[in-house]
Predict the 3D structure of the following.
Amino acid sequence: MIINKEQVLAALSNVEDPDLKKDLVTLNMIKDVRIENHHIAFTLELTTPACPMKEMLKNACTNAIKHFVAADAVVSINITSRVTKPNDTTQLNAIKNIILISSGKGGVGKSTVASNLAVTLAASGAKVGLIDADIYGPSVPIMFGLIGAKPSAKETEDGKTLILPIEKYGIKLLSLGFFADPEQEVPWRGPMA
Ligand SMILES: Nc1ncnc2c1ncn2[C@@H]1O[C@H](COP(=O)(O)OP(=O)(O)OP(=O)(O)O)[C@@H](O)[C@H]1O
Ligand SMILES: [Mg+2]
């Protein structure tokens, strides 16, 4: 039996990306299909190099080909990733690069790393903003010597209120710490947090 590309793609259209809930062919993730007798090779292009489902998808592809095309097929899959920019219409479109600093543990230096990265990038000529998304213990006001600082706001023509970030060392800064009195407790619970 001669195996053709259409058969391979038809088989792979049974494999769904568990996150995106569509099949790999529809998602245009299958590239560069090569067939030589019963040897089938292709590239699986993931959306992130850190995809936790890599092995699972690889096995699912191999099984689909063995099941729908040929049981004796020898399948080799090359995994790559194409990191796409967010394709939405939000204001994030105006931002070229986003660096997220996070950890699964408290007090390990997230704020220190984020602040120093921001200052260093700004000093090297980048246009930088830093959002302190820490709702429990925002430390950016302390790190930047801005305890007690309050951002101002302005009304846009269409009636929206824009919060204007505070600027320090050439960086635009926002932190929940700017909106709460340092002495005041802020109760964050459930859906609000
Ligand atoms: N590389 C480092 N070596 C030693 N101490 C550090 C280092 N980085 C940060 N620290 C110190 O560790 C403490 C915690 O740092 P930081 O506040 O940046 O952590 P964090 O991960 O943001 O904490 P939190 O989870 O409370 O937000 C601070 O006192 C900081 O000065
Ligand atoms: Mg912190």
